[in-house]
Amino acid sequence: MESLVQDTIESRVQSVLAKIRSAAEKAGRSASSVRLVAATKTVPVQKIAEGVQAGLAILGENRVQEALSKIPAFKPGPVQWHFIGQLQRRKVRSVIGVFELIHSVDSRELALEIDRRAGDAGHRQDVLLEVNIGNEPTKAGFCPDDVRQAVSELAQLSHIRIKGLMAIPPPTIDPGSARPYFRKLTELAKMIDAQHLPSVKMDELSMGMSNDYEVAIEEGATLVRVGSAIFGARHV
Ligand SMILES: *Cc1c(COP(=O)(O)O)cnc(C)c1O
Question: Is the pTM of this model over 0.85?
Answer without folding.
Answer: yes
